[in-house]
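>> Question from a student workshop board

For tomorrow's exercise we were told to take the sequence and the ligand below, predict the bound structure, and bring the output to class. My setup keeps failing. Could a helper post the expected result so I can at least see what it should look like? The ligand is 2-acetamido-2-deoxy-beta-D-glucopyranose.
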Amino acid sequence: LYGPGFFLGKSGFFCWAEDFFCSIACFFSVTSAFFYAPSIFFWPLSHFFWKDTIFFLVRQSFFWHVFGFFLKNDHFFYDIRVFFLTWDSFFCAVNPFFFAIIIFFCGGGAFFFLPLHFTGRIDKSYPTVCGHTGPVLDIDWCPHNDQVIASGSEDCTVMVWQIPENGLTLSLTEPVVILEGHSKRVGIVAWHPTARNVLLSAGCDNAIIIWNVGTGEALINLDDMHSDMIYNVSWNRNGSLICTASKDKKVRVIDPRKQEIVAEKEKAHEGARPMRAIFLADGNVFTTGFSRMSERQLALWNPKNMQEPIALHEMDTSNGVLLPFYDPDTSIIYLCGKGDSSIRYFEITDESPYVHYLNTFSSKEPQRGMGYMPKRGLDVNKCEIARFFKLHERKCEPIIMTVPRKSDLFQDDLYPDTAGPEAALEAEEWFEGKNADPILISLKHGYIPGKNRDLKVVKKNILDSKPTANKKCDLISVPKKTTDTASVQNEAKLDEILKEIKSIKDTICNQDERISKLEQQMAKIAA
Ligand SMILES: *[C@@H]1O[C@H](CO)[C@@H](O)[C@H](O)[C@H]1NC(C)=O
Ligand SMILES: *[C@@H]1O[C@H](CO)[C@@H](O)[C@H](O)[C@H]1NC(C)=O
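>> Workshop helper replied:
Here is what the output should look like for this input. Compare the format with yours to find the bug.
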């Protein structure tokens, strides 16, 4: 007997049903306890039988009563100019120390980050990270160093930044390394979960490049696997495989080092709207997408047999792309629809119906983007099992998910050991074919950060490396130093163009200032 199972849209009714079934279950368990209790003294085995009775009646889950709430008002950060593109990105990235967010900045090209304890208004002159010549499309914090972040941009480059421990006092324009190799904008950057300095990027050139950031080299280039835009890439738990969801409606499981497609599913979701695919800890793939009738769907797949899904569920007919956030420790998936005002969460188990609807956190305003805190950044004393950062047009609000407990003690059932910041492998080991699971840490006394080592990039002789960076970028790329006499003329032209761009940027900046002045005046008048 599985409580309500999976019935969305009618969740009110089934919440009631859930309680009803629980009460019946409790009744049975209490009566059976009564019935069997005397025999416990005589026959210890009956104790197990008694326990089994309860398990038989209710699927045990700690997470039936996950409870979400907003933090108090003074935890908002506001007056951010978030740069909302048509791109389906999260627009922000969170680690245990910083909250980074892509912003509108004189024509795009920047993001900034705040220490997590920051609250209140953000000054216009707040320092930014602004080295790209086109808008930033995706950012990702390094899981092995909380002061390193990668960014992908419309200017066809990927940049990796090292930031000072206490944040910035001046804007940062010099990345540690610029990774060039894509011929169109780079919409996805994703660090390897367990190997140090391994970074994946995917661009609108339908190529995936895997970089050794420590040497600045593109070591794997998967440019003939996707026939259309890549919506999303996800590493598996030990980083041996990746899965992708693409505009050609295929979900692919790829072995990047063998450069081969291990499994694929055509029309994983039949609708034309964007899909997402993520790896779960057990190796299965979870996808979201749309049906032919434009209903939102979720599905679970086993890469060993992708013909039929393990589970496929229809949700509703909203049109926001469902962005999944996954916690491998608790096996909970949180689905945040773009433009929805709710977060729905599901527990994934290995028994039917596999995807169990748990609950919905609802709020009034729709979310424009969402950040998700890694497990080690949570407050274990408050029994917090997830923290989100909900982006609005101009502000951000943290949302906390907890499993309320009466005791003050550490709840080790809620916090199994979780992925720590230590890398299990060096980049070279991974490229040679080694795999390793994440190195786990206990959160018993909270997360105690160690010292981050500096990111050092030792460039190898460029002539030794594979010629992946010779494609021409369609957009403006950063001028390269060249000794070729024939290109001197080109360089002059490029200079001219860059000057022009600068003057356009200045104009935009001035306009920007004027607009915000006018807005302020308007606000005064309105008040
Ligand atoms: C893929 O999507 C999932 C869920 O939306 C997200 O957690 C992950 O970061 C995405 N990966 C990339 C590379 O964008
Ligand atoms: C890594 O994960 C893959 C797929 O889940 C599995 O087949 C492989 O055995 C794992 N390797 C190690 C070293 O854990």
